[in-house]
Write a structure and sequence with these properties.
Length: 98
């Protein structure tokens, strides 16, 4: 089965500011928005989650879009540099950084 990654490149929905998106995602992930912003708003793309089935990746995409952030779903056959360091995001009915 093909695996996918969810990648954020800093692109925001129209009408959303970086501060608002960071605040909403911080609430969702239960992490300080300043810390989160410094990890995801970088000069390169950030892989938020990898090794996902397409359906799982689409759940991440929808959750991020509801909070003003566009993400890409990429086949893991394509490589994107940049990770959230040692942290990862887990889906258990909700997104959160652990």
């Amino acid at each position: 089965m093909e695996k996918f990654s969810v990648v954020f490149s800093g692109k925001l929905k129209d009408g959303w500011t970086q501060e608002r998106v960071t605040s909403k995602l911080g609430q969702l992930f239960k992490i300080d928005p300043v810390v989160l912003g410094s990890k995801i708003f970088t000069s390169s793309s950030v892989v938020l989650k990898k090794d996902l089935a397409l359906e799982e990746a689409q759940k991440y995409e929808a959750a991020m879009a509801e909070r003003g952030a566009y993400v890409e779903i990429l086949s893991q056959k394509k490589t994107v540099k940049g990770f959230l360091g040692s942290e990862s995001i887990k889906w258990n009915g909700r997104l959160r950084i652990k």
